[in-house]
Amino acid sequence: MVNVFIRGAGIFESMADMDAATVNPSTGMMRDEFLTNSTLGTIDHLHPNRAGYLSMAKTIDIRVLAPPSRGHRDDDD
Question: Where are the domains of the chain?
């Protein structure tokens, strides 16, 4: 329910949809390829394996974290 609000509210400048990066839309569960860990076997269905974390990282637009360019002002004084 929180994810639906964040995606649809239109009040955020940007978002990284990590849920969409790891969930199989047809089942609503974490994608199978993110459920196994070579050293631990099957994991807890909440925390993905390394491939899942890499998929999550790809959702982040690092440009939104950059400082404003020089000469750019956010206020109009």
Answer: 16-65
Pick the closest to residue 31 from 21, 39, 23 (CA basis).
23
DSSP code string of 33-74: GGSEETTTEE--SSS--HHHHHHHHTT--GGGGSPPPTT--S
Report the run of H or E that residue 57 belongs to, with start and end. helix 50-57
pLDDT, tens digit, 9 for 90 and up, residues 9-46: 989 888 888 888 999 999 999 999 999 877 766 678 88
> What does pTM read for this prediction?
0.67
